[in-house]
Write a structure and sequence with these properties.
The complex is a heterodimer.
Chain A: H1 6-36, E1 60-66, H2 74-89, E2 94-97, H3 107-124, E3 128-131, H4 144-157, E4 164-168, E5 171-175, H5 188-201, E6 206-210, H6 227-237, E7 242-245, E8 251-254, E9 261-265, E10 280-284, E11 288-295, E12 298-305, E13 310-317
Parallel strand pairs in A: 1-2, 2-3, 5-6, 6-7, 7-9
Antiparallel strand pairs in A: 1-11, 4-5, 8-9, 8-10, 11-12, 12-13
Helix pairs in contact in A: 2-3
Chain B: H1 3-34, H2 42-64, H3 71-99, H4 109-142
Helix pairs in contact in B: 1-2, 1-3, 2-4, 3-4
The chains are: A alpha/beta, B mainly alpha.
């Protein structure tokens, strides 16, 4: 074996250490980051959908729910394309967006990339979008800049406020601001009292709550600390049927908890792993959206993956007396 | 095949794998989340393969062709460069893609950007190899 010089020994040692560090960095951080994010630009869906093809009546509504779509990348386009194809098969007039409309920049700069281009077929068909604001929609919510970012997003989407209700056919929707300080700061009591009053005065057959942060999740973020204590009793007392959220980038449905079914539908453009908890009825780490049909006393939900595979199907019955 | 040639061929294959790996990661993530082939990534794999084959051929020549430097110095410099290439081949495309978020997509944007970023990573690795080799050769030339 040849004798190595001092420089060769030094270079070989540093090279070995550097290669080990590089290998560890790749396996531990860079490759997971590249796999987790949706950075590669993608072509927008190119479908022409028939306008206002849906039928909403006093006892019938079809809507879609999706969260965390804000990359503008290929995976986001694949989900948007599937949503457009879902409209072709079963038209809907409403999308409840579960927050995180924009990643990787300011919504004023990226609105076309993250919303208009991917959702163009649905927008052109006249579909209405209603937003529950997410944490990436405002970054640090305590700053004036982030509040301005949220205001810009609400204005761009035509959303009336950070918390609001809407009514479509047999369903009343309740949109919450689940970020700090909305749910956990000084405004929290006011929001919960507002929600309690709104739910109490709701006379419609179905009550669906939309918020970004999940009360129940087996994903990477997990169940939002404190949210269950603050909101769970209100949902149970007011007989909410379905709670839709995003934040974690997966699909998960719980067994009914105090009569309430909780769904995470956050696979709008990225995926993160999901496990199973004692409350889990179905879970999948997937790019997906939720397609919901309400007909009379039945609500049927389908979690549809970007390739059209139905990951989960569930049915709820209307509460007695409604 | 001699040990040196076998080692050179293995090194070239490693270079190809390292350059292709990021595109494979992107493809695997898309397939895992959306189902096989739904999120297109053949263009990235193609771009990675083109740059990877060129980088592998160059790497093979560098470690197998005799030059002013001895084999020990050649291999130490080559392995140092491989560490740089491994990191750069993932980091540079990631940074480049993040930098162009918001640029309207065309059919060539992603593969061209991907290939360009990989080429930058290959050039960085080659620069490191040359400097390291020169530093080691200086010592060989001027005595220990």
């Amino acid at each position: 074996m040849p004798q190595l010089t001092r420089r060769q020994l030094l270079a070989a040692g540093l090279g070995a250490a550097g290669s080990l560090a590089a290998g560890g960095g790749l396996a531990g951080r860079l490759w997971p980051l590249l796999g987790r994010e949706d950075l590669v630009p993608g072509a927008a869906p190119d479908l022409a959908l028939p306008a206002t093809a849906w039928s909403t009546t006093a006892d019938r509504l079809t809507f879609a729910a999706v969260g965390d779509t804000g990359s503008g990348g290929r995976q986001a386009m694949a989900v948007a394309d599937r949503m457009a194809r879902g409209y072709q098969a079963s038209p809907y007039g409403l999308v409840t967006h579960l927050g995180d409309l924009c990643y990787y920049g300011r919504v004023e700069d990226r609105f076309d990339d993250v919303f208009v281009r991917p959702m163009r077929p649905l927008i052109d068909a006249g579909v209405r979008f209603e937003l529950a604001i997410g944490n990436h929609d405002g970054d640090l919510h305590h700053s004036d800049e982030s509040l301005a970012e949220i205001d810009a997003e609400l204005r761009l989407l035509g959303t009336p406020a950070r918390t609001y209700t809407t009514s479509h056919g047999p369903v009343d929707f309740f949109y919450l601001d689940s970020s700090a300080p909305g749910l956990f700061g000084a405004d929290a009591t006011a929001q919960v009292e507002w929600l309690d009053d709104a739910l109490a005065s709701s006379a419609n057959q179905w009550k669906v709550v939309c918020l970004h942060h999940p009360l129940f999740s087996s994903g990477s973020h997990g169940s939002t600390p404190g949210a269950r204590n603050v909101l769970g009793p209100v949902f149970a007392r007011r007989s909410v049927d379905l709670v839709l959220s995003g934040h974690d980038h997966h699909y998960e449905r719980t067994r009914p908890v105090d009569g309430v079914t909780y769904v995470v539908s956050g696979g709008g453009c990225k995926t993160t792993p999901v496990g199973r908890s004692r409350f889990t009825a179905a879970a999948a780490s997937a790019l997906q959206y939720l397609h919901v049909d309400v007909a009379g006393d039945r609500l049927t939900g389908r979690s549809v993956r970007a390739d059209g595979v139905v990951l989960d199907r569930f049915e709820l019955r209307a509460r007695e007396g409604r | 095949m001699s040990l040196g040639r076998t080692a050179a061929a293995a090194y070239a294959v490693l270079v190809l794998v390292v350059v292709l790996a990021p595109a494979v990661v992107v493809r695997a993530a898309g397939d895992r989340g959306a189902g096989a082939g739904v999120v297109g990534s053949a263009d990235l794999l193609g771009a990675g393969a083109v740059v990877g084959v060129v980088a592998a051929v160059v790497a093979w020549r560098r470690v197998s062709a005799p030059g002013a430097a001895g084999p020990a110095s050649r291999w130490i410099a080559a392995l140092g460069a491989l560490g740089v290439l491994a990191t750069g081949a993932t980091a540079v495309p990631t940074i480049a893609l993040h930098a162009v978020t918001g640029v309207p997509d065309g059919p060539t944007l992603a593969p061209v950007l991907w290939a360009g970023a990989l080429a930058v990573a290959v050039l960085c690795a080659e620069t490191v190899r040359r400097r390291l080799l020169r530093w080691l050769t200086d010592e060989e030339t001027h005595g220990r």
